[in-house]
Design goal:
The structure holds two protein chains of two kinds. Chain A contains twelve helices and one strand. By secondary structure, chain A is mainly α. In chain A, helix 4 packs parallel to helix 7. In chain B, strand 12 and strand 13 form a beta hairpin. Chain B has eight helices and 16 strands. Chain B is 25% helix and 35% strand. Chain B has two domains: 234 residues, Rossmann fold (3-Layer(aba) Sandwich); 118 residues, Distorted Sandwich (Coagulation Factor XIII, Chain A, domain 1), CATH 2.70.50. By secondary structure, chain B is an alpha/beta fold. Classes of the chains: A mainly alpha, B alpha/beta. Strand 1 of chain A pairs antiparallel with strand 4 of chain B.
């Protein structure tokens, strides 16, 4: 008779909270499979396939370049407007697609949630993983391009890029998993989401440097979940000196979002199957 | 030996009322102003209350009970999809649950890709899937369509592929919810064979929730009978099934039907005392209640084999029924059935068109077989009945 004392599990009512990293680690292969599936499905029945990764930021770049270049260039001290928007859009692409994919992920996988148990965080993590693939492709292209065209890359660039990526992942993952959990209960999120993403874009420094005379507004600007990461990100591509105030506010802000999202998600996940 | 599954005082409460809405939107809240300030006007509903039982390693357990008795809730808690409200379960082994065939199948992915994703979701490691890949394909029989997107498969092919993946799971505990109620007879037979192999051959513990009495009787040694969320009985599956079925006859059919004639009791004489041996005759005992004297009533019964194929349908004419209880005994001189679990349907008709009372799968009984050892050649199809040979001449 098969029995395996190593796998003793106890099912009890949920009384205390835990992040349960161990269980997530045991399911790392499942995360890989979710990312793999979504990646496979994403470009099925398309003609240009993976090239879509480049089309969206490049089109947006053209639009904003022609519309805003003249008026904004005088305010930029360290890079040309085209470069400013391109770098911004690539990080923005990671942030926005991670949030919107994570937010929809639980609802779109509800048939699986209702039938099989696994740590639920696997699903939003996998949707971040998916956005990360596109992002890495674009970033590699951007770094190679920068290297040959206007080499502002410096010794610290590499660390800045990694730091900025981690910050963007933390804030988008926190935000995304918060929305994903809420979306299961309140489907309003689905309708509010595109609108929220737009507000996040226009209140960020993706398209223009926001400089206010008013210090409250400046602080508010720094509290934007992507602005800290954006600052670090652009410092990697230019000689702009780091502004530690922006950076620190960004880091704390992103850490807070990260843990808030996971906390809310874990807190409500037990009842996902009943709500989905 | 410790039990592999220990269920202790398990309860699950669902809040019914406003909160049981599938999902809430702000609009729902806004559009019912009466609930603005009293959103918690819900009442608790016990889907399960104080259920306890133990399952020993290697046992195959059937969970039976009517619709809404809490079977599926129990299975959902066992497979950790939803948490219990109180009580606890201890599981000593890896668990795989099959609450649905083909969970996570994606129409855009090819058969090959779906095998990998579905396997991973069911808890297999990548190396494990690689190792069993050929076996899975063999079992599914869709080899030539492996690189075709799943959306171009017929539903039967999808099902075969899904079951093939599930059949190659190797957990210590396998939880199954009526997934076999689909597919053609041939495929069902294959699945049942595979399940028997998993439970009896490999010594794994299997928990099955099913309405299919034939299947529960054939596969399961023990059964848990749940009634209204309470743990009613735990025992040998055949005895419990019979009791369950008889109770169904007396409580269920006759509450919804207010007919003048109905079946009160039906049994195959002495079947669980194993007097139904290979060659002996057997007797069907039926009690029919009639509210007033009746003439020319027909009693029909059909027998299904373990694969849900009807093997016989007989109709007897009853010239006269007195008011009150009528005892009907139908004796068969020889047994033409192969070994296995059979189930009986019946109907009572007052002429050959009008049905007065009817019931499906109301009794299951076991024929001890095999009837002829010679037939047990590996892989030979035994057919569905046994012909009784009277004389053999060879010249």
């Amino acid at each position: 008779m098969l029995q395996n004392e190593n796998f003793e599990t106890e099912i009890k009512p949920i009384t205390h909270f835990s992040f349960n990293i161990k269980e997530l680690w045991q399911n790392r292969e499942l995360i890989y499979f979710f990312v793999w599936r979504d990646f496979k499905v994403k470009y099925k029945q398309t003609i240009i396939g993976i090239l879509w990764v480049f089309i969206q930021p490049l089109t947006l770049l053209c639009v904003f370049y022609f519309a805003l270049s003249k008026s904004i260039q005088p305010n930029l001290h360290y890079m040309s407007y085209g470069y400013f928007v391109l770098t911004g859009l690539i990080l923005w692409q990671l942030f926005s697609s991670a949030i919107s994919q994570a937010a929809e992920s639980m609802v779109s996988n509800s048939n699986i949630i209702k039938k099989i148990y696994f740590p639920r965080l696997v699903i939003p993590i996998a949707s971040i993983g998916n956005s990360l693939i596109d992002f890495l492709i674009m970033t590699v292209a951007l770094v190679i391009g920068s290297f040959f065209l206007n080499n502002h890359l410096h010794f610290l660039s590499f660390f800045y890029l990694i730091g900025a990526t981690i910050m963007a992942i933390m804030s988008s993952f926190g935000f995304g998993s918060l929305l994903a959990a809420m979306n299961l209960k309140y489907r309003d999120i689905r309708y509010a989401l595109p609108f929220m993403i737009q507000i996040l874009l226009f209140s960020s420094t993706v398209l223009y440097p926001l400089e206010f005379q008013n210090s409250t507004l400046n602080l508010l600007k720094n509290l934007h979940p992507l602005n800290g990461a954006l600052h670090l990100w652009r410092c990697a591509f230019s000689n702009e000196p780091l502004n530690y105030q922006i950076l620190l506010i960004g880091i704390f802000n992103n850490l807070f979002l990260f843990f808030l999202g996971i906390y809310y998600f874990r807190k409500t996940e037990a009842y996902f199957a009943d709500l989905a | 030996m410790k039990p592999i599954i220990e269920v202790r005082n398990l309860s699950k409460i669902y809040q019914i009322g406003a909160k049981s809405e599938r999902y809430l939107s702000l609009r729902d809240r806004l559009s019912s102003p009466t609930q603005w300030f009293s959103s918690n006007k819900t009442e608790p509903f016990y889907a399960l209350k104080d259920v306890s039982f133990d399952i020993m390693p290697g046992e195959t357990v059937g969970i039976i009970g009517r619709n809404g008795a809490g079977k599926s809730t129990l299975l959902k808690i066992l497979s950790r999809i939803t948490p219990p409200t109180s009580g606890s379960i201890k599981l000593r082994g890896r668990v795989a649950s099959l609450l649905e065939v083909g969970t996570g199948f994606h129409p855009e992915l090819t058969g090959r890709e779906n095998i990998f994703f579905n396997g991973a979701i069911l808890g297999m490691r990548k190396s494990e899937i690689n190792r069993k890949f050929d076996e899975i394909i063999d079992f599914s029989g869709v080899e030539q369509f492996l690189d075709t997107p799943l959306k171009q498969y017929s539903s039967g092919m999808q099902l075969r592929l899904a079951f093939a993946v599930a059949a190659h799971l190797e957990p210590e505990i396998l939880l199954i919810d009526e997934v076999l109620a689909v597919g053609d007879a041939e495929f069902q037979k294959k699945c049942l064979g595979k399940m028997e192999d998993i439970s009896k051959g490999q010594g794994r513990t299997v928990v099955v929730v099913s309405h299919d009495m034939g299947m529960v009787g054939r596969l399961c040694d023990v059964a848990v009978w749940i009634q209204n969320g309470r743990n009613v009985k735990f025992g040998k599956s055949l005895e419990l099934l019979n009791e369950y079925v008889n109770q169904s006859v007396s409580n269920y059919y006759h509450k919804i039907k207010d007919s003048s004639i109905f079946l009160k009791y039906l049994s195959i004489h002495d079947f669980y005392n194993s007097s139904l041996d290979d060659y002996g005759g057997y007797k069907l005992v039926v009690k029919i209640i009639s509210k007033r004297p009746q003439k020319d009533i027909y009693f029909a019964f059909g027998i299904q084999n373990p694969f849900n194929q009807r093997v016989a349908l007989e109709i007897v004419k009853l010239k006269f029924l007195k008011s009150g209880e009528n005892l009907l005994e139908i004796t068969f001189s020889e047994n033409n059935l192969l070994g296995g679990i059979y189930s009986i349907d019946y109907s009572i008709l007052n002429n050959l068109k009008e049905v007065i009372d009817i019931g499906y799968n109301i009794l299951s009984f076991k024929i001890f077989g095999p009837v002829n050892e010679l037939i047990l050649i590996e892989g030979a199809d035994q057919g569905i009945i046994k012909l009784r040979i009277k004389e053999i001449r060879c010249s």
